[in-house]
Amino acid sequence: MAATIWLARHGETTWNLAGRYQGRLESALSGLGVRQGMALADAFAERLRDGGRVPERIVSSPLLRCAATARFVADRLGVALETDERLIEIAHGTWEGRYRDDLAREDPDRYRAWRERPATVAFDGGETLRDVLARWDAVAADLARATRDTLVVTHDAVVRCALVALEGKGLDEFWNVAVENAAYAVIEADGRGLTLTEECVTAHLAHARADVAGQAL
């Protein structure tokens, strides 16, 4: 039987609110991010009560913002929380810890390229989108053979790379997929590959959706 994979982004963080690039640096969930994590757990608990499928396995990026979001679901369902280094956020290199508006002014050419031609950008001391996609491809190969329904909690850049790959698009479409804090994509694994069935589920968030437009992504 095919396994269901839920691919979620972490809840909103204090640095998301501040418009500050996170990359590999740690930042805590904001108050809204905590509510989003609880809403994600509530959604799966409701599915369980209704006899629906829920995660039998939960895998997260090791960074705090993802692990904290995943922990709400893991504790509610009584499922162990695993971490996978391949799910870590893109390394923004010298941009990490800096504010989006400052970078638009101080590193304008790279910032413009990142917003308009993201697949061409290599971050000083960091990664490219092709590096992130390679990490996702390795994870996807494992998930394709999954026999247990699985929740994966990761970061914006990883989710975007996953979605463009699953939709058969190129990395130039990186910004043209829908990703929100604590929202999730639904993917089916059949032993041979992965099929995307829903790109961005937000119904469980109700009034807890974050304004991603101001975030440093």
Please explain how this structure is put together.
With 217 residues, the chain is an alpha/beta fold. Helix content is 37%, strand content 15%. It has 7 helices and 6 strands, in the order βααβαβαααβαββ. Strands 3-2-4-1-5-6 form a 6-stranded mixed beta sheet, with helices on both faces. Strand 2 (57-60), helix 3 and strand 3 form a beta-alpha-beta unit. The longest helix has 19 residues, at 31-49. It is globular. The relative contact order is 0.22. The model has no long low-confidence stretch (mean pLDDT 97).
Tell me the name of the CATH class.
Alpha Beta
Low-confidence stretches: none
> Mind telling me the CATH superfamily name?
Phosphoglycerate mutase-like
CATH architecture: 3-Layer(aba) Sandwich
The helix content, as a percent range, equals: 25-40%
Strand order of the largest sheet: 3-2-4-1-5-6
Please write the string of helix (H) and strand (E) elements.
EHHEHEHHHEHEE
Shape: globular
Total of DSSP H or I helical runs spanning 4+ residues: 7
Average pLDDT: 97
* Rg of Cα set: 17 Å
From the helix content, strand content and strand pairing, which structural class follows?
alpha/beta
CATH topology: Rossmann fold
Q: Mind summarizing the main beta sheet? A: 6 strands, mixed
Fraction in beta strands: 15-25%
State the end-to-end CA separation: 37 Å
